[in-house]
Design a protein that fits this description.
The chain is an alpha+beta fold and 74 residues long. The chain has one helix spanning 53-73, and strands spanning 5-7, 10-14, 17-18, 25-26, 28-34, 39-45. Strands 1-2-5-6 form a 4-stranded antiparallel beta sheet, with helices on one face. A two-stranded antiparallel sheet has the order 3-4. It starts with a strand and ends with a helix.
Length: 74
């Protein structure tokens, strides 16, 4: 299953991390900005914890899309 989602020149790549104590999953993701001659990659981490990996992936996409929208508005 492809987890990466493209939004124009941006790609959100979810990397959910399982908590060390097994209590849930934290959303970590990167946003790649594909520019003319290089790709800028920024990693984000949320302090939220979700019960399932799938919920953490969904959160990655929501948070990533929000950041892409913020960047486009700037």
């Amino acid at each position: 299953m492809e987890l990466r989602r493209r939004y124009g020149r941006f790609v959100v790549d979810p990397r959910p991390m399982q908590m060390a104590d097994g209590s849930g999953w934290a959303p970590e993701f990167s946003i790649e900005e594909h520019l003319s001659s290089y790709v800028e990659d920024t990693i984000y981490f949320s302090g939220q914890v979700f019960e399932t990996r799938e919920d953490a992936i969904d959160a990655c996409h929501v948070l990533g899309r929000r950041e892409v929208t913020r960047r486009l508005a700037a």
